[in-house]
Amino acid sequence: MDRIRVSVVGGTGYTGVELLRLLARHPFVQVDHITSRGEVGKSVSSLFPNLRGIYDEPFSEPDAEKLAESDVVFFATPNGTAMRYAPQLLQKGCRVIDLAADFRLTDVESWQQWYGMQHACAELVPEAVYGLPEINREKIAGARLVANPGCYPTSSILGLLPLLQAGLVVTDGLVIDGKSGVSGAGRGASVAGLMSENGESFKAYAIPGHRHQPEICQLLSQISGHPVSLVFVPHLLPMIRGIEATLYARLKDHSEQDLQALFEQHYADEPFVDVMPAGSHPETRSVRGVNHCRIAVHRPLDGDFVVVSSVIDNLVKGAAGQAVQNMNIMFALDETAGLQQVALLP
Amino acid sequence: MDRIRVSVVGGTGYTGVELLRLLARHPFVQVDHITSRGEVGKSVSSLFPNLRGIYDEPFSEPDAEKLAESDVVFFATPNGTAMRYAPQLLQKGCRVIDLAADFRLTDVESWQQWYGMQHACAELVPEAVYGLPEINREKIAGARLVANPGCYPTSSILGLLPLLQAGLVVTDGLVIDGKSGVSGAGRGASVAGLMSENGESFKAYAIPGHRHQPEICQLLSQISGHPVSLVFVPHLLPMIRGIEATLYARLKDHSEQDLQALFEQHYADEPFVDVMPAGSHPETRSVRGVNHCRIAVHRPLDGDFVVVSSVIDNLVKGAAGQAVQNMNIMFALDETAGLQQVALLP
Amino acid sequence: MDRIRVSVVGGTGYTGVELLRLLARHPFVQVDHITSRGEVGKSVSSLFPNLRGIYDEPFSEPDAEKLAESDVVFFATPNGTAMRYAPQLLQKGCRVIDLAADFRLTDVESWQQWYGMQHACAELVPEAVYGLPEINREKIAGARLVANPGCYPTSSILGLLPLLQAGLVVTDGLVIDGKSGVSGAGRGASVAGLMSENGESFKAYAIPGHRHQPEICQLLSQISGHPVSLVFVPHLLPMIRGIEATLYARLKDHSEQDLQALFEQHYADEPFVDVMPAGSHPETRSVRGVNHCRIAVHRPLDGDFVVVSSVIDNLVKGAAGQAVQNMNIMFALDETAGLQQVALLP
Amino acid sequence: MDRIRVSVVGGTGYTGVELLRLLARHPFVQVDHITSRGEVGKSVSSLFPNLRGIYDEPFSEPDAEKLAESDVVFFATPNGTAMRYAPQLLQKGCRVIDLAADFRLTDVESWQQWYGMQHACAELVPEAVYGLPEINREKIAGARLVANPGCYPTSSILGLLPLLQAGLVVTDGLVIDGKSGVSGAGRGASVAGLMSENGESFKAYAIPGHRHQPEICQLLSQISGHPVSLVFVPHLLPMIRGIEATLYARLKDHSEQDLQALFEQHYADEPFVDVMPAGSHPETRSVRGVNHCRIAVHRPLDGDFVVVSSVIDNLVKGAAGQAVQNMNIMFALDETAGLQQVALLP
Questions:
Q1: Angle B169-B171-B176 (CA atoms, 0-180°, nearest 5)?
Q2: Domains of chain B by range and CATH?
Q3: D346 touches chain A (CB under 8 A)
Q4: For B129-165, what is each residue's pLDDT tens digit?
Q5: pTM listed for this prediction
Q6: Partners of chain B (3+ Cβ pairs below 8 A)
Q7: How far is D243 from chain A (nearest CA, A)?
């Protein structure tokens, strides 16, 4: 079989290097171009010594003509980049997976407010498929343009999906308390990101409103079939990789619904969602470096709250791994190809 | 003025060594005895080199007769210890501050269920004062026996107090998402507490029910004047000191109540509660090593949820510092005596 | 091709779980037995959730009869265990790789002093091959019994090997300053290993003498062809995985020897030793989870000291990965089989 | 007694905020001005919430006229700043303590090479006193201009001082292996300082040559009375505060010199140097937030190497604390005034 030809735009951020790590050992892929405006000419492995001997070629200038030679182009770029390349690439028959947010919100007005810029190709937004395979597997298979989900949305939606689909919980007033490692803030120089600022400390951030709020809200509303209201507060963990979301919902009635069975059945055939045994508390390290989401469902003190704890690696299932999973689906490959690592523990 | 004579029972745990750190520089205190069953004869500073030159005397066997010579005895011991000494000490005119949970719950039945043991002196429970000065300052001043609050309860109650006292929020279905550094788990040998198990990872724990739940519930109900229902989920942070509690409550109506002003006025005269400016996100490091609780209040997306983020150092305002604050009040000292350190940042 | 049948004795420590992680994706291996005296009957994945869906079978009791059905048995056990099983297993034609220290020192007297026990099969010591492929590849290929090197020795010896073999440095008074992540201390319950004890702190340990000293000394002396004297001080890092060794040696003369070229040539054909470009400073994270040793060689201020910085993952090249590499060599497999992961960065 | 009036130039870096923390509770000091070019008008406590309620006034523009009203001005600035203000301040009778490197090297040529700039007031260099009280206490008492030592030099020199002064070790080829927390790299925005880059990893840096090398060399040569040669390699720890230096020297002869007694006697009267009991391994956390240097001396395997492990808090004894100690000496205050905190452990 011919290998799929892929290119990576924006290979110098953390989602970029993680994508390269996964693609390096993908059995059905060949990497064409790795671009970076800022590091043109520098070898990839000089920036990321874990890639020595694998990607020793230089970063290239992003060039739509050349990129279009690939079967698929990943954008591991800041928000607002993919939308400037997508029309041309799609036109030339190349598919696009955007790891940023350009195509995640169906409401362009709302997107423009949350992201503070004009959308460059609003006409493509309706076509874009939200790349969460556990919801949209079939649409992804036929997609030209995939909006790879955000990290908090992935962990939150997967944790609430069985409850909302079964219509078991009150959808007004969901509470999502998310915690992320610092790699989620990216690889830009900043005081706020220094180890001296983040180590041995913890805080909430963006309590007034975070961009992942409308994304989560949109998806949960689609799943529920009616508008959902929620409050979402993200927090910054003194560690590098991993997201945990603790999800709080109230049961509509106190019936003896077996929540554990509900979750296990819902995800029985999913290769990357692992429902932990009853009574479990998933640790982020159990998914370090892998594409899994591990979930536990509880009913504290047998009350009317259901609490779900959901963990992912923000750079894998929350970004690069999910992008590879989407690519696998788009190209009818084994969905787990290149994603069969075992999490690094301890 | 004569110095107050104090003894510390259980000086080998983290709350014990923290208490010794604070007492070491307290201007009005003299330490009589530092006991430890397990380390009798070993010098305090050989275990805790930060105390070299300050407490070089040996740990002694706990002996009620000797302890009673002190004006006040702190119990920095496991649950179930203070209750065995308190009757004798009180009878001899010595006061008692228990940093553990023996006297926190007014409902002895409930206490026995949550803590899995018989209470040794249930008759003293009604007399014990819950040592949260921001609620019980006057009672503490006259108390013989003080139940020092738990760490999660301190951060949670202080964050919700102004809202509940003003009657602004729905008290059915409060959500408390707490996160603690690992020092909260104590200094016992365990696999679960190893750095290899806790570093670079994050998880929820005790979702089915945690002992601080009834404690928080009891206090919030007292404050509200009616039963409060809540869900509380604690989490373990990959760091040593600090607790952050994110508190979610729904406003009863969407009136234009100025929550920032409410909090600022409520805590205007409190020496150890700092209401941060509007829009803030308190960091645990801003209270590292000090007795302060820093609080920010938000109303995300102008919706009907109010979200409070509250941080303390679990070993100071969540344990040893609050115990010293209580002692200061009990002995009519300046409430801030010995507690005027500046937090260590970075 | 038939898969090689392997068993793992002592699957509950950190080298054990790491071995299982690597064997799980090894293309030519089938795992027969995973034993643990302490956890018999418990499923492997219940202890290590990263292995869910991979090793869900229970730990079994170690039984020499059953183990001998395997082609090779790995001992990821405390010191003193492998030596009790090895004679019986070898006799039955099974090969043995000991990740502990039982067969590392050729001088049994010295071993007994350093390890504080009688050796149970001193007669096998001369046959055991020290499993550092970069020195002993051919002997390993023919070995029945391999002594997998210690973590500090691996990083130290690989860093000094080209210098000693070329006879360029004074071999009296080598200085080895090693730093290790806490996973090197194992998974036993202890106060000393708590995160509250190790986080945000750093210290030397075992300055009076560490068991890896005679091991390093033995190997460096073999390489040099004459007795070498050295001082070795290990340190404990506030992190989980990784060893860095900074190696100091004095050049015999100030000739213009090109040390960079020497190292590059020496390791040109080694799949797992990466000589970094001149001027580099290898980071432990660049080998996180992989079997590589990355090395940089310097001559500070053009003086007569040569300084080598050498990094490995103590659990991989320093333990489980090297054990798999040895197995690959012993069974004439591709030496890199099952060891082609890319390091997790960040 | 009138309080000493002090000003702090460069209050936004980590040594600046640490200085403010210490000055805040100093019993004999009044802070006049806190300057920052970059943050003029912003309140100090808005940047550093640990200082809320203590320094709520704004940062001011540095102005030599106003600064000269103080009795002493601390420069917690980048290299090259103090030398531009010092002449004017000294002329007006104000004393100067530079926490940066402008006046540390007596050889101006060498300084200019290492620091890559012209010295602005070379004529003052001979007058400047190297502010290590354990060596220069009397000179400091009479100094107008103090060069506060570097962090690595402080830990290294204090560890070697008794050996060199007693003439016990070979002074050709000393090895200094230093490890520092990331706060030593300052509070500037950078990719290299991100937590995602530094967390859970370790590396050497500046092996070809570090600016603290000539500083250490100068002082050790002064102490020895003849030129000393050494190799110094610094390393970056995945933690915030603390330096450990492991110092290797060869004994001139194998006599039965009691090194423990030598160190204990040498430092018997020093308030801030603590010689640990024989066999100890000092931890950086034992000096977290305090001005102490803790030292242990060993003779590994009774060989001819003496190994000293020396720990300080790089921001306290390695910077701000030592500056306060110097001020205390310069103004004939109790040397420990404002420096009597107890280290934060755990």
A1: 95
A2: 4-127 (3.40.50.720), 152-314 (3.30.360.10)
A3: no
A4: 999 999 999 999 999 999 999 999 999 999 999 999 9
A5: 0.98
A6: A, C, D
A7: 15
